[in-house]
Design a protein that fits this description.
Layout: H1 55-58, H2 62-77, H3 81-99, H4 104-119, H5 123-140, H6 149-161, H7 165-183, H8 191-203, H9 207-224, H10 233-246, H11 249-267, H12 275-283, H13 304-316, H14 322-338, H15 342-355, H16 360-370, E1 374-375, E2 396-407, E3 413-421, H17 426-437, E4 441-442, E5 445-446, E6 449-450, E7 453-465, H18 466-483
Antiparallel strand pairs: 1-4, 2-3, 2-7, 5-6
Length: about 475
């Protein structure tokens, strides 16, 4: 099991409902002439198509449109986004031809195209098509229509992907407001939108605002599940994950403890559902050091009781899933490894190795969990240098920090060497070098025995502006003169 704090906040994942056409099939094909107005369909490609129009578009019919849409849905289900892109564009062209540019069908088709482009990281194109979808809905419906919610969610996600959390925050706020108008201010459906809004606030560096949003989410869940304490568990686990990402580890611990109390009260102290929050609670102490303990890497000792209890509960349940059993025992072994208790750690690592060596499915998991190095704790690294930030205007450039190192059989990092590109970003280099040098790993194993892992490479990418680099170069020129 990997104990990690993300190195950067990932773009929020979103789910757009694939739209079905609401009208009955027409008996006759649409015989309208060429459209005088078209809805802009953004495309990352700069090439201009010169081939003849697709035959299906020339002879567009409702039946052909539905058939292409069904194919599009299959491609999405298969996560074949490259093939889904041209299919989504054909759906847009056919929807415009049959239903007109200002129609619900065209709006939905544009939104679906934006979904594909977002998954292909074509964020500019996705933003344009989500925006076109929203503009159509504002005309044919109104500015508070519930049908605006999905394209607004897509637009916000694309804006986050395009490094514009400031715009995304406004988009998600509008989507939440529309749910208030249509479903009431306490509707549970807005939780996903609010989680995306919290993500935008975190990426803007406004942690307090993110915390306020998370408190709103919690209040909504408590209200919704007031007669179902166990139904509140998934939202509590998500809340704890957010608190971890924001660095509120005391709050995170309190949330996991509340989760455990709910399960104990409802189902007893040995319910297997307690295992996961117990492990997560133990992991929080990797990030909590109230007292420095002699001979230890940190004060994570207070987490041992939670890991050990989780293992006991898992072992008592004959039906406990084997993968969760393995990761639960690894969590305890990792704890011992982190605190220099290598003899105890190796004993458990070997037990898990044998446990995962019985069939092909388990061997595949063994390769992932035990045959490669796994960091036990990672601190986040800055994504921007100098004056560059998430909201900086265009002109951002990308630099890299490369760290070469080896991992000992005890999980320590040795022989670190780093270099920056451009070389002037020495402050970023020092930050990344120090982080890698201080990491503790679950070392790779061969035949159940921990071994060294030489020739490890870590690449950290960051953004900067040309003005930042120019300033550093100028400072390097002036320093020799100042010393004279």
């Amino acid at each position: 099991m990997r104990i990690t704090r993300p190195t950067s906040f990932a773009a929020v994942l979103f789910v757009l409902s694939l739209a079905a056409h609401g009208q009955d099939l027409q008996d006759e094909e649409d015989d309208a002439g060429p459209l005088e107005q078209t809805v802009p369909v953004a495309d990352e490609s700069t090439e201009v198509a010169v081939s003849a129009p697709d035959e299906a578009v020339q002879q567009a019919s409702e039946e052909a449109l539905l058939a292409e849409f069904a194919r599009f849905r299959e491609l999405i289900a298969e996560r074949n986004y490259d093939a889904a892109d041209p299919s989504a564009k054909r759906v847009v062209e056919m929807a415009i031809r049959i239903h007109g540019p200002q129609s619900l069908e065209t709006s939905k088709a544009l939104s679906n195209l934006g979904l594909v482009q977002h998954n292909n990281k074509q964020y500019d194109a996705a933003i344009q098509n989500f925006t076109s979808s929203i503009e159509i809905l504002e005309v044919v419906e109104d500015r508070l229509s519930s049908q605006l919610i999905n394209p607004l969610k897509g637009l916000g996600a694309a804006q986050l992907g395009n490094s514009r959390p400031d715009l995304a925050a406004g988009t998600f706020t509008r989507a939440s407001h529309i749910t208030h108008v249509n479903e009431g201010p306490h509707n549970i459906d807005q939780v996903e939108i609010l989680e995306s809004l919290a993500e935008a606030k975190v990426r803007l560096g406004d942690i307090e605002a993110a915390r306020d949003v998370l408190d709103r989410i919690h209040s909504l869940n408590v209200r919704h599940f007031e007669d179902d304490a166990l139904g509140l568990l998934p939202s509590l686990m998500r809340r704890a994950e957010w608190q971890h990402r924001a660095g509120y580890h005391n709050d995170e611990r309190a949330t996991y403890r509340r989760t455990i109390r709910i399960i104990e009260t409802s189902s007893g102290k040995n319910d297997p559902r307690i295992v996961s929050p117990l492990v997560k609670l133990g992991e929080t102490f990797y990030y909590y050091e109230p007292v420095t303990m002699d001979g230890y890497r940190g004060s994570a000792a207070s987490g041992e009781a939670y890991f050990r209890r989780a293992v006991r509960i898992a072992e008592r349940d004959d039906d406990f899933p084997w993968l969760e059993m393995a990761t639960t025992e690894l969590a305890l072994a990792d704890y011992y490894s982190y605190l220099d208790g290598h003899n105890r750690a190796r004993k458990i690592y070997l037990q898990v190795w044998d446990y995962l060596s019985t069939d092909e499915d388990r061997l595949a998991v063994r390769r992932d969990l035990l045959e490669r190095p796994v960091p036990l704790r990672e601190e986040p690294l800055p994504s921007y240098a100098g004056g560059s930030s998430e909201t900086s205007p265009g002109g951002r450039l990308q630099g890299t920090i490369r760290v070469d190192y080896m991992i000992t059989a005890r999980g320590d990092v040795k022989n670190t060497h780093s270099e920056a590109s451009p070389a002037e970003f020495t402050d970023m280099q020092r930050i990344v070098h120090r982080e890698i040098r201080g990491r503790i790993f679950r070392p790779p194993m061969v035949d159940g025995v921990p071994v060294e892992a030489p020739n490890q490479v870590f690449i950290h990418e960051f953004f900067y502006q040309q003005a930042d680099l120019d300033e550093l170069k100028q400072a390097a020129i002036q320093e020799p003169g100042e010393k004279k």
